[in-house]
Design a protein that fits this description.
Elements: E1 2-7, E2 10-14, H1 17-25, E3 32-37, H2 40-58, E4 77-80, H3 88-95, E5 97-104, E6 107-113, H4 114-123, E7 130-135, H5 137-155, E8 172-174, H6 178-185, H7 190-193, H8 198-201
Antiparallel strand pairs: 1-2, 1-3, 2-4, 3-7, 5-6, 5-7, 6-8
């Protein structure tokens, strides 16, 4: 699994979790998203869209420019806007904690630190994981659940599929019927599926 880390001041293409942990630790801002996939090209295509999403959602009155991403990615790269003014030691301490909302197409959970996030990604319990730094645990629970619900209904036909989540507040859910759903989904014609882009296929 390869990873894309998107921040307001950094973009990192990571070969493995060691690269990702380093990128997360030295990123220039708390606000951040992480995507996992097996293909650098898919992550490269997602980088521009993801940066725009971050800038629109988080910048407020501050002005951030998109970081230019190379047209081809073949190995790990860490790109920076170079605008961070924080002391490195203070920055590392600042970004180490805070809750992450994590969703896949087969469930969701939260992490309360970078270490916990990396452990969850290493387990590969979630398919096509997306993690977003939220900060507060309660907000992360809501964000994770909402992200999974949105991705579920983007991927499956609501007339035939339901995620079956309990109504009470939970911070972990795994769709036990995911494999069966995927087999049913394979009945979609090859012609229809060919029109879908990678990021749509993964419901990003």
């Amino acid at each position: 699994m390869k990873y894309l880390m998107l921040g307001l001041q950094n973009v990192a293409f990571c070969q493995d979790l060691t690269d990702l942990g380093r990128a997360l630790t030295y990123r220039g801002d708390t606000r951040c998203m992480v995507y996992g996939d097996n293909n650098y090209e898919t992550l490269r295509n997602l980088a521009d869209m993801g940066q725009r999403r971050l800038i629109q959602n988080y910048t407020g009155n501050q002005v951030y420019n998109q970081i230019l991403v190379p047209s081809t990615i073949i190995d790990a790269q860490f790109l920076s806007s170079g605008t961070s003014e924080a002391n490195t030691k203070d920055l590392v301490a600042m970004v180490a904690y805070g809750a992450w909302a994590i969703s896949g197409i087969n469930g969701f959970c939260i992490a309360k630190s970078i270490v916990e996030l990396l452990q969850i990604l290493a387990s590969e319990v979630l398919v096509f994981p997306v993690a977003t730094w939220i900060g507060e645990v309660d907000n992360a629970v809501v964000a994770a659940r909402n992200s999974f619900t949105r991705r579920f209904y983007q991927r499956y036909d609501w007339r035939y599929e339901s995620p079956g989540m309990p109504q009470q507040k939970i911070d972990f859910f795994q769709d036990v019927h995911h494999v069966v759903r995927e087999k049913r989904r394979e009945n979609i014609s090859a012609e229809a599926k060919s029109f879908k882009k990678d990021f749509c296929e993964r419901c990003w």
